[in-house]
Amino acid sequence: MIRPPVKTYFWKDRPNFGDRLTGMLLQRFSNLPSVWAKPEWAELVVIGSILGHLPKDWAGVVAGVGKLHEKTVIDLPDATFLAVRGPLTAKGLKKDMVLADPALLADELVGYLDKEYDLGVIPHWTDKTLALDPRFTKFNPRIIDVTQEPLHVLREISRCKKIVTSSLHGAIVADAFIIPRRIELAPRMITHAHQEGGDFKWRDYHASVGMKFQPGVLMTADPHKVSDLQHQLFEVFENVENHFR
Fold it and tell me: In the chain, fewer beta carbons within 10 Å around the N or the C end?
């Protein structure tokens, strides 16, 4: 008997490659087809700052998402928690789970590609300034559009020697490929912190990979830590497959 596609929820109000990795990761690492569903009907959540979108009676599987706002209280007594993005999201949940963003497996989706660009710039979809910043334009960077097809974005990132980004998943994918990266917070993240969550999701993710969150500083993820989290995520997706088969 063939199981119908797993109903997954991710944010899709605007095209964004990070959120759209959900189905690709599920197909690759859990051998499961998936279909998008509203939060109340979804069976699974994998990527994004969407944990606070789920209703209290939600009984699906959490496999990597995080909170957007630090003060959001997560009360999902019927949910199965396999992973969340980081320890700040996990705080107060009192559950044993993996602390890692599934986008750390992005390098497995496209493999290694030769470096073609000295610098890649990845603006958050709200960020209209980073691509024009003279501190970086003087290096003739490759501007990477997060609204493009996800695998194309991954390939573009993998071809860069260094990354400057205001996109969280831009930084996470750079870490997956162990590419040095520098974070420049999008202006809206600062001016609309009450809506965008400020730097919470950034601190949450950085805590998961054992890095200090330092905007404006070129940093490289520890390859041993990334490899360890990747192996934990392989197990998470294996558990997802077992749950839905």
Answer: N
Instruction: Encode pLDDT of 181-231 as tens digits.
Output: 999 998 776 665 555 668 999 999 999 999 999 999 999 999 999 999 999
Among 151, 226, 150, 149, which residue's Cα sits nearest to residue 181? 226
Helix (H, G, I), strand (E, B) or coil at 123: coil
**Contact yes or no for 119/141 (Cβ under 8 A):** yes
Rounded to whole angstroms, the Cα distance separating 176 from 63 reads 18
Q: For 155-204, give the secondary structure using H, E and C.
A: HHHHCECCEEECCHHHHHHHHHCCCCEEECCCHHHHHCHHHHCCCHHHHH
* Residue type (1 letter), 223: P
* Coil/strand/helix, residue 81: strand
